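Appendix C reproduces, verbatim, an entry submitted by the partner laboratory led by Prof. M.T., so that reviewers can inspect both the input and the predicted structure.
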Amino acid sequence: MRQGQAPQRNHMRTQLLLGVAFAATLLFVSAGCNKGGSSSSGSAEVEVAVFQGGYGIDFFEQAARDYEAAHPGAKVKVWGNPRVWEQLRPRFVAGSPPDVTWPGWGMDYWAMVYDGQLLALDEALSQPPAEGEGTWRDTFEPELLKLGQYEGKQYMLPYHYNMNGWWYDPNVFEKNGWTPPATFEDLLALAEKVKAKGIAPLTFQGKYPYYMISGFLFPWAISAGGIEALDAAQSLEPGAWNSPAFLKAAEMIAMLRDRGLFQNGAIGMSHTESQTEFLQGRAAMIPCGTWLHSEMREVMPPNAKMRFMLPPPLKDGHDPTNINIGIEPWVIPIKGKHSKDGIEFFRFMTSLTNAKKFVEQKGTLMSIRGSDQANLPEHLIEPAKAFANSEAIWSVEYRLWYPTLGKETENAMASLLSGEITPQQFVNRCEAEAERVRNDATVPKRKINR
């Protein structure tokens, strides 16, 4: 499963009761210099609580030692847990959170923003960075910063980020004389050649339908109707979920299904099962994020390779360079004892030097400008190029904002892939839930801003 799944939010926000929806994708820091926390004194012990997932906590522990060496008298305590959010929830409720934290995919960041639990970072971002000239804000990729803004304020900052797309094994393609499909029409032609070799053209993580929403539905809705079609759906605009663009995307998925281009049994596979099928050469392509290599490296066959590609768009489609990214959040709680010291530690962690180290040591992309000039692992070369060349960047936000809509679209996707419903029934089902949420006055409403 991806490093950061999207959390679900119920509306008992003051209790911060949290759930999980997608692997998502947010990495945030919230800070401000006019409220909360002591001033940076260099003598207080900064508490750093982190999600101990596939990237471990060793990098952050070493960063703490480096920070202490660069700031005599400073003390930083780093601790982590695979379910760190469970330990942090009661501390947020009690008003005794850590000074800076990456609380993981089980924490509901937006609930904390709505409840005033996090510092606004705007003043801190206007200050110099840990390295270089300009402001701290200038060091971040601006499109990623937008994902942490609410009502004109910057509440969250990205650290590493993931990119979703498709993957193929270049060795398998070269051996068979195949070329990665540049368009959907190319995909249909290639698929027949792949099937003739006894290989499934595509497999997918059927137990987790959000992979197919991000890997099939949204890219093809954008291709059919432009990035505006997706923005409208995530912003709950009436009729967006059953628009012609979304119907076309659903029809494209159904076409692959009806032509037998999906691997048999994929609908019942977990993420690791389908990904193993891909690595074993029984499927030619798979939708997944850039965490795929980190997740599967221990079981990769010796000669297997993986290379990233964008989902093939329609031949004359819109925004062919569109990419789907997700950031994973760190936050600085407003009631941390030493939140300003926490800001300074995170500022240090986001230096270009540290960002490049994280890329090279952990094999993921970073939100800091220039970090793509690090010694990139082979599997990140194409994602880095895609980010640099993209003219339309998007993130799956609606699952975070509207968890019931996220769940219903996933259920509907599973039904579409299994052939239980038609493309028209799929989009109508999604739009019906969108309308219900739209009319629910208790649900805070959000819009995509570009």
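The domain at 164-322+400-438 is CATH 3.40.190.10 (D-Maltodextrin-Binding Protein; domain 2). Additional entries are available on request from the coordinating office.
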